[in-house]
Amino acid sequence: MGKFLIVAAYAVYAAFWLRFLGHALVWRKASQRLEALGAPLARWSVKGCALAVLDVVLLGRVFIVNPALWIGEWVFHASFLLVVLRHLRFFLDPVPDWVWWMQTPGLIAGYVLPFALLYILVIRLLTKLEKYAAPANLFLLGLVLAISSIGVVMHGLFKPDLVDVKLFIFGIAHFAPAAAPGSVLFLLHFCLVLVLVLFLPTHIFIAPLVMLEARKREQALRLVIHEK
Amino acid sequence: MKNKRSFTIELSARQILELDACTRCGECLKHCPVQDVTGNPAVSPPEKIRMFREFIRATDGLKARLFGPAEVDQKLLQDFAKAVYECTTCGACGQNCPVGIFTQRLWPMLRKEMVKRGLGPIGAQAETPAAIKNSGNPYNKPAAERYKPWFPETVKVADRSDIAYYAGCTGAYEAQPMVRGDVLVLNAIGEPFTMLPPEEEVCCGFPLFITGQHDLLKDLVTRLVKGYKAKGVKKLICSCPCCVNIMTRDWPAIYGEDLPFKIRHITQHVSEAIKNGKLQLKNKLSEAVIYHDPCYLSRGVGVIEEPREVLRSIPGVTMLEFERHGLNSRCCGSGGAARKVFHENAIAMGRQTIDEAVAKKADRLILSCPACYAKVNEAMQGHKNQIRITDIMELVSGLI
Q: Cβ separation of A137 and B16 shorter than 8 Å?
């Protein structure tokens, strides 16, 4: 089982980069072309950049269009980030101080995360506020909900041997594989994370750039036909 | 073999990133006028983006690079083409996109790709290039009839002037009270203005651009720009939002250099004339009016305040607003040339505009777009709710 998981982890790692490479090749090909017709006017400004930062950090655009969903989405994204940072202790040795500082916030976020996801699912599926829910998004939400719930159960009830976990994860990350821990819950948690990496949506890398472009475009709207 | 053509050819790098950035959250559906009347998520923005991503993956993805492009399912392509042409390209989806995708510009470029594949345009839209070639306008009406039926006899047009007026095809043939009002108001301002002869005032190119048929654009734009340049024009005034949009955003790129004149929407010119005292609205209008923001004027070029300034300057007028107005205005159904094919959708959207205006207890619905003017008037025929529809310059011309 351990060997299989190690091979699976490397396969998923390779698949992730291949997928990224596939997208990068399309972006590169397109970047070599000039915009056929007038590119939208765009203006760099402190205000535009500040708004773009707020869009990325606080999901400002989501707040404008759907405040009820925004709170769930923001809590989900923030707690997911904190949980990921907390998990860095399994990948690094020695563990930097700032990763240790993230342990308590990360732990709290780990408990908050499933509730944020449940809230989003309720808004998406059980209220009449939503007209559309992409199956791919529901799959990812369900997947992260399962991963985070198992994480909570492992922390609260069935703790795996953390030394074994660290040796296993650290070994994979540094290409020196070690035996997998015996905890079934951990193995399930790990497998689901591999599935998540496999289906990680590309918008998490691209959306910030598009948000910045949108703010630059909005800041320049007054220049399209008004006196410059 | 045709289906193996790359799907990225007509798109800029920015647009390809935008396609990848869509989270398919579905927020846009709440603002989509087509969704309002069809309730069909299959023609929604995130579904169109999902399908187009599949096409790109098939012809440009890593697997396609290694083993050659895959054949794209013809049925899926046809479904996509229908969805992208059913859209009114109003851009409300992009305005409310949590990522900020510029959809008002994305959809026309996806349509262009469909045209290159022989899947677009749809129905009557396909007749547009031939009509423009034949008569200079997309309605295939005689050029000699372009000004004659509506041009006021009392108004004199200068041979040369700093200021020129472009009537536009839809105004000249389909919304004549609107262009008549434009000319009367320009005349009342008192500054000489020129116009191209009717056979030289050809289509601005927007109906071709918006349906993805770009072949004639260069010729049309060059003819118009050279025509105005020869008349010494420094400021070109137009009342049609679609014309104004392509003139400001695309004419420089199509023409190949900066335009030798600036473009202004007529409400900008009139608002300025009212402010500096060149135009006075003497007559009172004791009515509640509601102004509909045309999508390509508000979201397109940011002209939002000037029409309101003009209306507020009318003595006695009470201004009302639609729930969705300004940058968030809801399409009246006339946009994107979809009205030529998906007639029932357009009528249903037009009636939503009428219904809201009536519900707000407006005495008059004020429009500022010839396509809106023609379609909303058509939508009111046989409808349970009735309201007086007036173009903004038609209104102003009656009050001076």
A: no
A175 pLDDT higher than 50 = yes
Q: Is residue B186 part of a domain?
A: yes
- CATH value at residue B217: 3.40.50
Mean of pLDDT values over B154-182: 97
For residue B1, what pLDDT is reported?
45
Asked if the model's pLDDT at residue B2 lies above 60, the reply is no
Residue of B nearest to A56 (CA): B99
* Residues paired with B390 in a beta bridge: B366
Task: Provide DSSP, B73-136.
Answer: PHHHHHHHHHHHHHS----HHHHT-SS---HHHHHHHHHHHHHHTT--S-GGGGGHHHHHHHHS
CB contact under 8 A, A132 and B41: yes
Residue B233 and residue A1: Cα distance in Å, rounded?
A: 79
pLDDT of residue A32 exceeding 90, the answer is no
Examine the domain organization and report whether B135 and B186 are in the same domain: yes
Q: Which residue among B71, B94, B120 closes a domain?
A: B120
Count of structural domains within chain A:
1
Q: Would you call A126 an interface residue with chain B, using a CB distance cutoff of 8 Å?
A: no
Give yes or no: residues B264 and B154 share one domain.
Answer: yes
Dist. CA A89–CA B64, nearest whole Å? 39
ipTM of the complex: 0.91
Among A59, A127, A215, A225, most B C-beta atoms within 10 A, so best to mutate, is: A225
Q: Which residues contact B252 (CB under 8 A, 6 or more apart)?
A: A38, B258, B259
Which pLDDT tens digit goes with each residue over A46-75?
999 999 999 999 999 999 999 999 999 999
- DSSP H or E stretch at residue B291: strand B288-291
Parallel, antiparallel or unpaired: strands B364-367 and B388-391: parallel
Report the gap between the CA of A46 and the closest CA in chain B (Å): 18
Which positions in chain B touch A228 (Cβ < 8 Å)? none
